[in-house]
Amino acid sequence: MILQFLFAGAVCAISAVRSGVPFLARAKDGQLPQLPLISIIEDDESVRVATQSFVRSLGFAACAFASAEEFLQSPRLHDTSCVIADVQMSGMSGVELQSLLVAQGHRTPVIFITAFHEEHIRARAMNAGAIGFLSKPVNGQILIECLDEALNRRNGG
Fold it and tell me: What is the Cα–Cα distance from 126 to 33, expressed in whole angstroms?
């Protein structure tokens, strides 16, 4: 089954079956697995809401935060499967958040989105283990690929 959606002005398609296994396949004990939680950290409300809606349309659970500080104080910090963060925000930047998560021993994959593509910041983020460094408006298909990679990495793949 193919799902279509509109994100950043482009129609994209995604298969509801990944790697030959249905997206919500039952676990061996017959229980549905817990949906991966994607935390979106973005200070621009319109981008935050659009990204959250997009991620939910893919079948993931999604929480949105207006700042890195809000995310760090939330109970979602420990059950987040992947972070999608803006690079430049008031207060703590996305790259500073990534550094703090690594320093605290969190292995949560991070995907960055930015309106200001600066090569030295991209290199720093990628060298620290970021999954992607995407320019706004975000290409939905590339974000899907980054989410797949992030969740595979999170699950030891």
Answer: 30
Name beta bridge partners: 86. Answer: 113
CB 65 within 8 A of CB 71: yes
Cβ 116 vs Cβ 93: under 8 Å: no
For CA atoms 105, 111, 114, 119, give the dihedral sign: positive
CA-closest candidate to residue 127, choices 153, 91, 102, 155: 102
* DSSP β-bridge partners for residue 62: 38
Structure tokens that stand for 112 in this block: 């960055």
Q: Provide the H-helix boundaries in 43-93.
A: 45-57, 68-72
Quick: pLDDT tens for 73-131.
999 999 999 999 999 999 999 999 999 999 999 999 999 999 998 999 999 999 999 99
Q: What share of the chain is helix, strand, coil (3-state, %, to 5)?
A: 35, 25, 40
User: What homologous superfamily is domain 34-154 in, according to CATH?
Assistant: Response regulator (3.40.50.2300)
